[in-house]
Write a structure and sequence with these properties.
Shape: globular
CATH architecture of the largest domain: 3-Layer(aba) Sandwich
Strand order of the largest sheet: 1-8-9-6-2-3
Oligomer: single chain
Number of domains: 2
Bound molecules: zinc ion
Distance between the termini: 47 Å
Helix content: 25-40%
Largest sheet: 6 strands, mixed
Structural class: alpha/beta
Strand content: 5-15%
């Protein structure tokens, strides 16, 4: 993966390569593209995707679920909007995505969380200050989302990774390969995966400005930075309701990335948690929930009791004042 256009890589392609090599680069989420060099003018945002993304029709959506999809998934379809045409700067306006149907997912056979390797471990790396996303809440949410045991390890507050200062933001960055090698040595025997979470910015090699996260699926380790989801990182105010926004963003990111870890590619069928996102507004507008196509993949990966799962998620949204999500789950539970 020695290409230069690290953040620009087509995420559909990433996932084919990822499954092949066991390596996943998360260029998804909020503009993974490297900042343009100062000598060049920023490239104007495109208004259509390179090949003009056309939302799949009803038949294509239905085939993506699989012709043998149980009734539950067909019923869930009424709770999701079909994906819309992207507007300027949106993920699908700038990235070609071929999608991944349920039958295609089934054929992949990625690592699945199965006993004895069925726990998700979270390892905080570096400092988390007050006002940063709550790791305990992220742990709680990830537990409810996947129905797996999620263990929050004691953080390493002052790790010694290779680092540098980013030329553009003047902020400290850590080298991801160094972190992944470290995580491999710490992988517990019962871990499905070990995920490093940090508020420090990351870079994958000298030629790249930054990366949001990277994972090696075969080695079961990954690291994700929440730094660039925080307005303070760019010198802006966090604004009102920051706690809720921080929680919502970090829960979505962790769930989305962990689904990638389970072999799920970006969704092009419905408005869904697995849609790629290219900027913060798109992340904030992204659905918190998995559409029926992706939900069926989740069923294969973690075999949840769906009613119990939605009840557990509802409790979380209620306890944390995430009203929109609570109302959506209530509608599903009442149906
Ligand atoms: Zn993604
Ligand atoms: Zn989906």
């Amino acid at each position: 993966m020695g290409h230069r256009n690290y953040g620009n890589v087509n995420c559909g392609l990433i996932w084919k390569i990822a499954i092949f090599l066991g390596l996943a680069i998360c260029g998804c989420s909020v503009g993974g593209a490297p900042s343009p060099p100062p000598s060049k003018k920023p490239v104007p945002a495109k208004t259509t995707s390179p090949e003009g993304f056309k939302p799949p029709n009803a038949l294509e959506r239905s085939l993506a679920m699989g012709s043998d999809a149980p009734t539950f998934f067909l019923t869930m379809e009424s709770f999701f909007e079909p994906i819309k045409e992207p507007t300027s700067r949106d993920w699908l306006a700038e990235h070609q995505e071929k999608g991944q149907t349920y039958p295609q997912y089934e054929a992949l056979e990625p690592n699945m969380p199965r006993a004895p390797r069925d726990k998700i471990y979270l390892l905080p790396l570096g400092e988390f200050s007050s006002g940063d996303p709550s790791l305990e809440k992220i742990q709680d949410y990830t537990t409810r989302f996947f129905g797996l045991e999620v263990v929050l390890l004691e953080g390493e507050t002052n790790p010694t990774f290779t680092g540098r200062t980013d030329l553009f933001t003047k902020k400290k960055q850590w080298l991801t390969s160094d972190i992944l090698s470290h995580l491999e040595t710490k992988l517990p025997e019962d871990a499905y995966c070990l995920l490093g979470v940090t508020m420090t910015d990351l870079y994958p090699s000298e030629s790249w400005n930054y990366v949001f996260g990277i994972a090696t699926l075969k080695k079961r380790v990954g690291v994700y930075s929440l730094a660039r989801y925080d307005p303070q990182f760019f010198g802006n105010s966090r604004g009102e309701d920051w706690d809720k926004k921080a929680l919502e963003r970090s829960c979505k990111v962790l769930a989305h990335e962990t689904c990638h870890m389970m072999g799920m590619a970006h969704c092009i069928y419905f408005d869904c948690l697995m849609n790629g996102t290219n900027h913060l507004d798109e992340l904030d507008g992204q659905n918190t929930f998995l559409c029926p196509v992706c939900l069926r993949k989740l069923q294969r990966a973690v075999r949840p009791d769906f009613l119990e799962r939605y009840r557990h998620l509802k409790e979380f949204f209620e306890a944390n004042g995430l009203e929109k999500q609570k109302l959506w789950v209530s509608r599903v539970l009442e149906s």
